[in-house]
Each structure stands twice: as C-alpha cells, then as structure tokens.
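Friendly challenge for the regulars: who can give me the structure tokens for this chain first? No prize, just bragging rights.
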Amino acid sequence: MRWLWIDKIIDFEEGKVLRAIKAVTPGEEQLHQPFDADDNRLPATMPAPFVIEGMAQAAGILVGTATKFSEKVVLAKITKATFEREIGVGELIRFSAELDRLDDQGASTHGLIDVRRRGPQPGADQWERVGIVDLMFGHLDRNMAGLEFPDENFVFSDNFAFLLEDAGLAYLLP
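First reply, four minutes later:
Bragging rights claimed.
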C-alpha cells in the first residue's frame, strides 16, 4: 500500500469498532482544486474516492484484527457511499468503522465519516456527520477458486504495522 489515508488510530474495541483520524493538510497532492463557472478557484477539497479509501483502510484494519491477521483481507464491494458535503483543507476527518458481520468468506462493515467542528471554547469541539460508507471485504485465502496468493500480496504493509504500534495495538500483529 503506497498511501495511507489515516493518520492515527484513536479508539479500538476488538471485533467491534475502530476509529481513526486524518488531517487534511494543504500540502497533499491529491487535493482537488475545483473551479466555478467563471474559472475562479474554489477551496481545495478531498476527493470522495480518497475519503472512501480512508474508511476502507480503517475498516480493513478492524477486519484484519478480528481474525488476528490470519487472512489476507481485500475490499470486495462498496455497498453504500453517501456524502452530505465536501471535506476541505484544514479539516480533521474521523473514520468510525463498525464490524457488522464476519465469517469464513469475509466481512461487512458500517462506516461513519465525521469532521471536527471547532467550538468557541477549548474542549468544546463537536463532530459533524458528513458521510456514510458501508463496505464488504473478502478473505483471499478462502477464495472460491482455491487460488493461493503470495505473502507480498498482503494489503497490510509496514505502514499499517506502525499505525497499530502507535495505537498500542502491536500485540495484534502476526
């Protein structure tokens, strides 16, 4: 995996929920700088596919930890992706992934996308719901074709290991 779309895991309940955050900073290459009808630049925004990928990474880690990373987990299907508004530079995204189903073939997750709204006083910040992303994952090692995949095909790279270690979850690594 070349790019991480989450910066930090902030909450984890094994087999239930994983929450992660991503700060949208001005130096990111993937930001979309749209123009209006008069060719005026509008504020830069995070493209929706990258927001979906951030949720897929958070939910994929949740699914992987539920099986102690004994399976190679891959995104199989986006079952729902709705957004109330775009996410801009300077905003903090929170990905909340909940495990709905886990079986031998894969898993399904329900994901909420929130953006932090700064409150007038320190500690008065609130989270605003901006999207829902529900996903299905498959286990490569239990594919119906009986194919075997090499270890280097595994989606969880050293970057994901660092995220788990940083969150105090290194014990979940294989």
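The radius of gyration is 17 Å. The chain has one domain: 11-169. Your move, everyone else.
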